[in-house]
Design a protein that fits this description.
The structure holds two protein chains of two kinds. Chain A contains no helices and eleven strands. Chain A has strands at about 5, 10-15, 20-25, 30-35, 45-50, 55, 65-70, 75-80, 85-95, 105, 110-114. In chain A, strands 2, 4, 5, 6, 9, 10 and 11 form a seven-stranded mixed sheet that branches. Chain B contains no helices and eleven strands. Chain B has strands at about 5, 10-15, 20-25, 30-40, 45-50, 55-60, 60-65, 70-75, 85-95, 100, 105-110. In chain B, the strands form two sheets. In chain B, strands 2, 4, 5, 9, 10 and 11 form a six-stranded mixed sheet that branches. Chain B has a five-stranded antiparallel sheet with strand order 1-3-8-7-6, with no helix packed on it. In chain B, a hairpin with a 5-residue loop joins β9 and β10 (about 100). Classes of the chains: A mainly beta, B mainly beta. Chains A and B meet through β4, β5 and β10 of A and β4, β5, β9 and β10 of B.
Chain lengths: ~110, ~110
């Protein structure tokens, strides 16, 4: 176990709705990254948060947004859900400031958009 | 676009044999690599990492080899066990905050 927790574990939404996913980082870690993993694929980087600000973003539209809180936990928000947003959403925590920034993953939230 | 690919999508090995999982990466600027193991219904689990200034790194039953000349990474698992059955991903990073993953190799260990 990495100590990274995510909630909820599973979620079903309909197209057009909005969703908020949550992540608590491993103790001592100050950085959270979010990934989307479609079935049968590797995780795709969405964005990263450090010191409550976005610190890098992948190729995802603006309807994917996030927050980081003072306790380093984070939220991923997705607006106007589309069917293709169905995926496993993973967060990973790391400690910024080290040369080697190993990322440790949580168990993920499985999102199904109908 | 980024390209981190795996040579074999599936691999079956006999219990007790050694496993080798390969990975090709396309960006010569990548300086940090991680191998992850993902079991069904779980998040990726860190196995071992290596920086670009190294050619080899060993862990418990695992070894990662990095060949920067041909941009190739491999994961060797010694004495493969049924618990090693999973999907294995290599991930590369250039900036340190964004990792690029391949599509994964599914390892099946035959008892």
């Amino acid at each position: 176990e990495t100590g990274v927790t995510q909630s909820p574990t599973h979620l079903i939404k309909t197209r057009g709705q909005q969703v908020t996913l949550r992540c608590s980082s491993q103790s001592g870690h100050n950085t959270v990254s979010w990934y989307q993993q479609a079935l049968g694929q590797g995780p795709q980087f969405i964005f990263q948060y450090y010191r409550e600000e976005e610190n890098g973003r992948g190729n995802f539209p603006p309807r994917f947004s996030g927050l980081q809180f003072p306790n380093y936990s984070s939220e991923l928000n997705v607006n106007a859900l589309e069917l293709d947003d169905s995926a496993l959403y993973l967060c990973a925590s790391s400690l910024e400031g080290l040369e080697v920034k190993t990322q440790y993953f949580g168990p993920g939230t499985r999102l199904l958009v109908l | 676009g980024e390209s981190v690919g795996l040579h074999l999508p599936t691999l079956s090995v006999q219990e007790g044999d050694n496993s080798i999982i390969n990975c090709a990466y396309s960006n010569s600027a990548s300086d940090y690599f991680i191998w992850y193991k993902q079991e069904s219904g779980k998040g990726p689990q860190f196995i071992i990492d290596i920086r670009s200034n190294m050619d080899k790194r060993q862990g418990q039953r695992v070894t990662v080899l990095l060949n920067k000349t041909v941009k190739h990474l491999s994961l060797q698992i010694a004495a493969t066990q049924p618990g090693d059955s999973a999907v294995y991903f290599c991930a590369e990073s250039r900036t340190g905050n964004q990792f690029y993953f391949g599509t994964g190799t599914s390892l099946t260990v035959i008892p």
